[in-house]
Amino acid sequence: MPSKVGNEPSNRQIRRLFFIALAKQLRVIWPILSGIVSIMIISGLAIWRIEDWRIDEALYFTFVTGLTIGYGDFTPKHVSARVLAVVIGFAGIILTGVVAAVTVKALNATDRGNAE
């Protein structure tokens, strides 16, 4: 569908530019993202062994803690598991910041591509 105003790109073209820019950014920082997620999962699996939870409970706890939601339905009792929970929390904060930065970078690239 043609744009309504002169040479202004359509919403579909803008979305396409955004997702292309986002994919480029994710390719660059993929090692960082995978490292952060790996740290979170490894810490969650360690908590699984320490706390003797089911594995699905441990991974649920990991991502609820990592996303800083923290419902409180699972709480580690051992000191070492609590330390790992803090590591998961910090890793989640970093992960959230990196994802936000990549998204902003892709939006900026989309805006520059749109201006040209």
Number of distinct beta strands = 0
- Label the overall shape: elongated
**Rounded mean pLDDT score:** 90
- SS summary, helix count: 3
Poorly predicted sequence stretches spanning 5 or more consecutive residues: none
Question: Can you tell me about this structure?
Answer:
This protein is mainly α. The protein is 78% helix and 0% strand. It contains 3 helices and no strands. Helix 1 crosses helix 2 and helix 2 crosses helix 3. The relative contact order is 0.16.
Task: Give the topology.
Layout lengths: L10 H41 L3 H12 L12 H37 L1
Task: Describe this protein with a few key phrases.
116 residues; mainly alpha; elongated
Quick recap:
The protein has 116 residues and is mainly alpha-helical. The chain has helices at residues 11-51, 55-66, 79-115.
